[in-house]
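Suppose a colleague, Dr. K., hands you the sequence of a protein chain of 125 amino acids and asks what its three-dimensional shape might be. Before reaching for any lab equipment, you can write down a predicted structure in token form. Begin with the sequence itself:
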Amino acid sequence: MNKRAQAFLAKMQEKELDGIIINNLKNVYYLTGFWGSNGTVFISRDRQVLVTDSRYIIAAKQETSGFEIVADRDELAVIAGIVKDMGLSRIGFEDEISVSYYHRMQAAFAGLDLLPQTQFVEGLR
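The predicted structure, expressed as tokens, is then:
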């Protein structure tokens, strides 16, 4: 895990989050080094995952270190599966998302606490 991810985990603990979803591409790049036009990151204490579609899998593997790379078009389904398998309940997310994406999140993470985070990654810079 890189130093940025370590600082990220410390901030997550401070905010009492079990995990957080990052989908702003600038923040994905800041955390992972991956600069594709499709990528979502999920970070918890035990897993750091970058989900992208299959077009970017080779670039993601070359540009990223310390993150598990998953190729899938439905990033929320992948992350929801991870969250449920790990028994997590307090999931943060960047608050600069569309209403439709938020509704998709609510469906994917039904019964869990979705907690909007303002400038979470930007505050680490």
